Amino acid sequence: MSHPTVNFATYLKDYPDERGYFGPFGGAYLPPQLEPAFKEIAHAYHTICHSSKFISELRRIRREFQGRPTPVYHCERLSNKLGSCQIYLKREDLNHTGAHKLNHCMGEGLLASFMGKKKLIAETGAGQHGVALATAAAYFGLECDIYMGAVDIKKQAPNVSRMKLLGARVIPATHGLQTLKEAVDAAFEAYLREYESAIYCIGSVVGPHPFPLMVRDFQMVVGVEAREQFQEMTGFLPDAVVASVGGGSNAIGIFSAFLNDPVQLYGVEPLGLGAEMGQHAASVTYGQPGVMHGFKSIMLKDEAGEPAPVYSVASGLDYPSVGPEHAFLHELGRVNYVKADDRQALQAFYNLARLEGIIPALESSHAVAYAMEIARQRKQGSILVNLSGRGDKDMDYVIEKYGYGEDLLL
Ligand SMILES: *Cc1c(COP(=O)(O)O)cnc(C)c1O
Q: Among 69, 123, 158, 301, which residue has the least CB neighbours within 10 Å?
């Protein structure tokens, strides 16, 4: 395959192009009625988000409301159990609301209020994006409509309560299978009706242009902070940076600061229960090029060409595609896309809790699991992991289904 010559010193300025393409991937595949709405967002992003007023306000919010910068932490006990390679964590679990998602939700909320919008609209599956967005809406005094499959509403009661406490309306999608896909349809329909006074907020580096660009830029703070903190702690850059990949926002956030460095980058996809279709959500590993949800990327399709069923123990990772920039970085060979299955993720979950006093989100546990694999194989060096979120949300489920994991402890 022939690759464009990419200069990583100017990459973040060069990609995406003005139409939202990262090489062959990205773009905006929209029904004609929605084109003006997304053009308006792209225009607002290019003007407002680069104004000094926006930038200084976002900085203040990050410091005073979110509790940034989040620390980098050296896992000495975990590292020593595995050998002599050292594992470090970027503690996004300590970001307000307990995960990295608030980084882009606060950016989207700030943009909405600069644009004079009254309402934030989104869909949510497990409820994590809904909770982060409802938090942003409460902060900015905006209305918030979260569309959620009726089945998911029953399954995710604590997150539904959180969204309601924060003042959001949780609107059930009651057609079809009543899960995420139906919620996406319902949210898009609502946006079509309300785009003059509302803005649609996407929860990862996916969707039509400008969201993959915008969400990357809002998440980049993770990588910028981590690179500086790591160098200050150790005097070096890490040998490898590892992050879990659902849609890919926490991964792009940390990778973007290291693209032009001699640092290996690993995006960890969920292998779930195995390589058969329906048992995993390893979209880059097993997917093929195509268009879905308004953008071109790599995706998992069934025989009919529809989005394939996906599974992972981590509900934040079970998406049948990835952000277009990941498809591009894969094609360029700059990021290695690798896998961790449910069992490996659970092993990381239990051991990080026991050895370091940190209960990680099951999504983040996939990244920790792969870092543990690398640490076992190498005699020296260091690995920086994006610990994208905390595991309080997963604890009850894990204990009920798998107990306290005695057999998985190192
Ligand atoms: C949603 C979520 C993810 C996956 O989303 P990305 O866009 O791939 O980052 C990972 N970790 C946590 C804690 C999440 O809530």
A: 158
* End-of-domain residue from the set 159, 183, 211: 211
List, for residues 135-165, the tens digit of each pLDDT value: 999 999 999 999 999 999 998 899 999 999 9
Which residue ranges have their beta carbon within 6 Å of ligand 1? 99, 101, 128, 204, 244-251, 316-317, 361, 363-364, 388-389
**pLDDT tens for each residue of 51-97:** 999 999 999 999 999 999 999 999 999 999 999 999 999 999 999 99
Assess if residue 56 is contained within a domain: yes
- 95 and 158 share one domain: no
Question: Residue 1 pLDDT > 80, yes or no?
Answer: no
Q: Does 153 lie in the same domain as 126?
A: yes
- Candidate from 249, 337, 390 with most ligand 1 atoms within 8 A of CB, to mutate: 249
- Cβ atoms 97, 390 nearer than 8 A: no
Range of the domain at 90: 67-99+220-408
Tokens 């003005």 -> residue: 18
**Structural domain count, the chain:** 2
**Amino acid letter, 29:** Y
pTM of the complete model beyond 0.85? yes
Is 284 found in the same domain as 173?
no
Catalytic residue status for 100: yes
Q: Are residues 280 and 393 in the same domain?
A: yes
Please indicate, yes or no, whether residues 238 and 285 belong to a single structural domain of this protein: yes
d(CA 90, CA 383): 11
Would residue 49 show up in a list of annotated catalytic residues for this protein? Answer: no
Q: Which entry of 49, 96, 100, 144 is annotated as an active-site residue? A: 100
